[in-house]
Structure prediction request, 290 residues.
Amino acid sequence: MKLLIQLNFGLLGNLYVGVTQLLHFANYYKKLGYNCDFIFASNSGGRNGYSIPDIKFDELFDLESFGVFDTITTIEHSITNNQYGEYFCYGSSNPGVQWWDVFFNCEVDEFFTLYYKNYDNKIFSKNTVLPDIMPKFNKVVYEKVKLFKEKYPQIDSSLQLRLYGYGDKENYGERLTKVYSDLYESVKKSNKKFFLTSSCVSCLGKILELPNVFLFTYREMDDNKGDVNFDNINGGREKQLDTIYEYIAEMVMIGETNHVYFYSIHWQSTFLYYSFVNNPNIRIMTINDL
Prediction:
């Protein structure tokens, strides 16, 4: 009996939610005696915003958490056929589209569905069941976080904003003007020291000037278009990889503070999920609580 799981490289928050889900899923079948193999599809073609065709899985994650798998393989393009060699896709008719896919080489009487679902609005609920395994990223990420904390030890809170268009200036309308105006006044009056993730930095000029706001990496406002397709980053593979480490480090850094304030136009950001499951003391609130 064999199980094959495919992880499709996508948005970073989704990616981390996905690996916690699939590890739980794989452990269930491992205990039943299945051989478990893992494929990481590194190129989403920009479908979910990310694309580094030749990145390897161990460049993103510490493999210690993935011992349940007998093999770990990186491929460039996702498997999109329902049949792959001896394997058949279960739980979906469109492999390569969702965050992760399941393939078996045999009939499955009972398909284990716990955690095999996408993120929903209850992700930060007190009733949310935490994953059994909370995998770690590549050690480069944590070194970046460590250096940032040493540089700005005064930081005690985080700000995370999730807007449509990922901060593109074309979306900066009357609604967002009001949001940022109110946010600016609240942050200015606060005695907290805020870590601000770089999402939507292109719209946050005044807030960036406040002395109690700190960015993980300063990005020139005119250069930050919210474009997170790494194929468009100049400087070759090394620069692309370093950039994704910076983005992941921002996600990890949120969890280094116990108080997180967020604002989202449509839905809560999975960018917060890593912090939610890795920091038992964290409080995630809206910016209205500032």
